[in-house]
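Hi all, a correction to my earlier message: I attached the wrong file for Secretion system C-terminal sorting domain-containing protein. Here's the right sequence:
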Amino acid sequence: MKFLSILLCAMSATAFAQQQNNSSPYSKMVSHLSPQLQQILAKQMEAPHGLNKTTTDKQRLVGYSINDFRNGYKDSTYLAYSGYRGSSFANCQENWRGWDGTYSKPDQVLEIRNGILISDTRNTYDNNDSLAGFSLSGYLHNHWDYTRDNAGNIIVTDFYDTVGTQVNHSSEYFTYDNQNRITLDSSFQGSKTNYGYGQNVDSLIGYTWNNGSSSWIAQTKKINIYSGAGLLTLHYQFSTAPGSNVLDSYSRTNYTYNSNGFVILENTQLYDATSGTWGNDQNEALGYNGNNPLLTYVELDHSYKFIGTLNSAGNYDTIYNFQWNNSSGGWDQNNKVRFIYNSFDYITAADLYEIDTATGAISTTVTGRQNYYYQTYNVPDAVTTVNAVFTEITTYPNPVSGKLHVDGNIGSKNVSMQIISITGARLFNTSGNWQSMNKDIDMSSFANGVYYLLITDNNGNKIAAKQIVKN
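and the right structure:
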């Protein structure tokens, strides 16, 4: 299941590939990060800050614009919602990159570039507010439908591509084990991926269909190895050489963590089949401010560097981006971004300062701006859960070796109760009325390590979260 987060991110990226990523400083900051590292960082942000601000008064993003003051270029995005969806970003990173509705579940997203409508996205949701499908129109006319099982896992993705009067249809299928871990991802006679799980290890093998031999041919293999606490420590990749069906070692990546469990180093090596040795190291160093999981430092060997400062709320205040200069053998600053927040700690503006070509230094005036616009609305019976949990929620025994008992005074709400691994895998999921549902969770088959119990209401608002230790 740990691979599933990477898979779904890739699906989402494919679906929205037509949309311009207006958050260029953010893109530069994360685009070079490996899928594994992005997954680690995403889960890292969830663990300490996993509860959204869901007070009675909420705000949701309804508009976004990006302006380049040097050439007058302007893009705008408008978002519309139904019901109570759309509130709260888990952290300022989500807020910054969520200009297109990635995290807020809008019904409609309109993108306008220099006064021209280029994209109209319509989303539909099921009774659990999970994405059921979306259509993308503008210069393309595409539609996706998602079929889910009772646990909310996507089991079929149907894609429709309209070219003139012709409609092309393709499907992708997924299967899961009894712990809701993906075991198969396939398309009809096109490609498939098999997933396997063991003690502190999981793997996948990707195949493509060969019409000549009418058989599946292995193309790639990946193996993840985890610590006892569920942290990814080693990632292997295997691939086939041209004209070969044999999977050979390609790369291996080691991950190092600090005492807070935050990743601080990604070291990748390539395999030399001729000498049978590992080498050509590439290092990605990461840094933080105390126990805040928000990245404040990233440095990729002789390529890119990012430094961030935080405000009193623990969100980004200013970030500085640097590029490596081969001629001087040092770092050149190429821009900085300064953030402005509202009373909800949501970003209202991100001001970009770029190189002044006349002086060669960072401009002292704003050269571009991202604006975020919100709607304030009221949600009846909402609860306040800001980086805290309900004290009336109890779990025992904890540490647990067999059955975990969950109790607490939530009332008669309909809720979802999940167990999440520290790397983001959803290992257990059940839903129902809190008063009548079975609140016992059998964790005897789980690997030893740290997990999170997450309880949400029907709107996806997080009601409670507790750390669970399995031994």
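Sorry for the mix-up. The two ends are 21 Å apart (CA to CA).
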